[in-house]
UniProtKB/TrEMBL annotation:
This is Uncharacterized protein. It comes from Brooklawnia cerclae. It comes from the Bacteria.
C-alpha cells in the first residue's frame, strides 16, 4: 500500500519498468505520457498492473477541505502564477477569483484536485506545456505530506 502523495511517483516508476516513458508532474500528484494509438492498449494494461501491484491507501485519501482549500488558492496566486509568468515570459496572468477557483475543484459537492481541470478553468488562455507542468506546481510544496 502506498500513501496518496506517493502514488504518482510509484506509478511512474512502475510504468517505466514496464517500458513506458511516463513523466511525473512538478507537484508529484499526477503524471503524463505520450502514446501512439498502437501503444494505448498495452499502456492501459500496464497502468492497471501497476495500480494493482501498488494500491493507494484509501484510509487516508480524502477530499481537500477547510484550510487546505485556502492554502492551495494562496499558492496559485503567489506561487504558480509568478512561476508561470516567468517560465512563459508572460507579463500578467489574470488572477482567478476565489469563486472561479472553487468551481475548478468542486465536483458536485466533493472537493478534489484534478490538475487538468484546474488549469482549464483557472487559466483558459494559458498555453499548456509539459515544461509548465514540470516546473510550476498548482499545489504548495509539501501539500499533504503524510506521516508513515
Amino acid at each position: 500500500m502506498v500513501n496518496p502523495d506517493e502514488a504518482s511517483t510509484v506509478q511512474v516508476s512502475c510504468l517505466r519498468e514496464l517500458g513506458f516513458a511516463a513523466h511525473l508532474s512538478a507537484d508529484g500528484w499526477s503524471h503524463s505520457i505520450t502514446l501512439s494509438d498502437e501503444q494505448a492498449d498495452a499502456y492501459h494494461k500496464a497502468a492497471y498492473e501497476c495500480s494493482a501491484q501498488y494500491p493507494v491507501r484509501a484510509d487516508i485519501d480524502r477530499p481537500i477541505q477547510g484550510e487546505e482549500i485556502t492554502m492551495i488558492y494562496r499558492h496559485i496566486l503567489h506561487g504558480f502564477i509568478p512561476c508561470a509568468e516567468n517560465l512563459l515570459g508572460i507579463q500578467s496572468i489574470e488572477e482567478p477569483s476565489y469563486t472561479t477557483y472553487r468551481r475548478s475543484i468542486d465536483y458536485d459537492g466533493v472537493v478534489a484536485i484534478d490538475r487538468e481541470r484546474m488549469t482549464d478553468v483557472l487559466f483558459p488562455d494559458l498555453p499548456y506545456s509539459l515544461r509548465l507542468e514540470d516546473e510550476c506546481s498548482l499545489l504548495p510544496e509539501g501539500f499533504r505530506d503524510y506521516q508513515r
